[in-house]
Design brief:
About 45% of the residues lie in helices and about 15% in strands. It has 11 helices and 13 strands.
Length: about 375
């Protein structure tokens, strides 16, 4: 959208359309005035998600713009009501899909600062290629649970892009990020600690200090010898995610924070299910390739195809039918040996049977 060769944000464009000079009426292309059935405020709210006329008890140190204020505060209101945050201090990072804000944590949380990731208004209407990530994922409710018997109806509404379907896609997308953070944080992954969620925001641990937020890895000049250890830490986290059947889906140095020698992986809305997504292997290979490309700039040698293949074989690859038959035969022999060998001499057979059982289990 252009005007006088200057790019205009779509929200600014809609604001201009309903400028005071239009007298609260919609100005059509022909220049004729048309009295809308909805009020000026209602139409503007519909178009831009502006809810600045909503009476909110939540007042902040950070002063958002007029059309940012409504959706920002309404997104964070429930987190304020729940006693998780007491103030919004500053904008950490703006983005097309979401903006991150530095918040003052409520003392009851035991934390000082928190980060609130607030999704941009209606951004879910414009997601590109989101079907690739949603493929094989369950539809989640606002409680982070599968939709159950209503899943088919909701999925159909999402495909048809009804108003209900758009909201359901929004909720499911956000909750996949939140629940992934919950699982990974509990498992010991280098991810933010999730603290709470609203219909349009995720509240999590803040990385950085009051003066500056942790920068993304792509902006950092690493010390000599530091890159190799960080590379291995990224791979440790990829491995840990795969243990929970998860693939980041957009992993790169742009989605890894760096602070005081440690990394934190962020941005998980597009997280992919390793078992049910048909593109899982391709997405995993892309994550590994981007990671290797960044660390190669810092002298770390890594073969992305070999690393991705190793991960895939470890967690997904099925055994060849002939190998499977051979393993079954070995297992039968090992079990037969146990019947005649003494306890002291059965170690080898026991080890064989455990290894075969492990391999067989990996094919389930």
């Amino acid at each position: 959208m252009m005007q006088a060769d200057v790019p205009i944000d779509k929200y600014e464009y809609y604001e201009e359309r309903f400028d005071e000079r239009a007298g609260g009426k919609v100005l059509t292309k022909s220049g004729a005035n048309h009295k809308p059935k909805k009020t000026r405020g209602q139409i503007l709210a519909d178009l831009t998600d502006d809810t600045s006329d909503v009476d909110l008890s939540f007042h902040t140190t950070y002063k958002p713009s007029r059309h940012e204020e409504g959706w920002l505060l309404s997104s964070l209101q429930s987190l304020y009501d729940e006693g998780l945050i007491t103030d919004v201090l500053s904008l950490v990072k703006g983005g097309k899909e979401a903006s991150v804000y530095l918040c003052e944590a409520h003392p009851a949380t035991g934390l000082g600062l928190l980060a609130a990731k607030v999704y941009r208004p209606r951004m879910f209407r414009n997601l590109r290629n989101d079907a690739m990530y949603r493929q094989g994922r369950e539809v989640l409710t606002s409680q982070g649970r599968p939709a159950g018997k209503q899943a088919g109806t909701i999925a159909r509404a999402i495909r048809n892009q009804t108003v209900f379907g758009q909201q359901a896609a929004h909720t499911s997308w956000l909750m996949h990020e939140y629940t992934a953070l919950e699982r990974l944080y509990e498992a010991g992954a280098a991810v933010p600690r999730p603290v709470g969620a609203s219909d349009n925001a995720i509240l999590m641990s803040y990385h950085g200090d009051e003066r500056m937020a942790a920068p993304t890895l792509n902006t950092v000049d690493l010390e000599p010898g530091e890159a190799e250890a960080l590379f291995q830490e990224v791979l440790r986290n990829v491995d840990l995610m795969l243990q929970y059947d998860l693939i980041h889906g957009d992993l790169s140095a742009y989605n890894i924070l760096y602070w005081e020698g440690e990394i934190t992986m962020i941005d998980f809305p597009q997280v992919v299910n390793l078992r049910t997504n048909e593109k899982a292997r391709t997405i995993l290979q892309r994550d590994i390739r981007r990671t290797c490309e960044y660390f190669a700039q810092h002298g770390v040698v890594g073969d992305p195809d070999a690393i991705a293949d190793q991960f895939w074989r470890r967690y997904v690859a099925e055994l060849d039918a002939e190998d499977l038959a051979a393993d079954l035969s070995r297992l039968e022999l090992a079990l037969a040996d146990l019947e005649v060998e003494t306890v002291g001499g059965a170690g080898s057979s026991v080890q064989d049977s455990k290894e075969i059982a492990r391999r067989l289990g990996s094919t389930k």
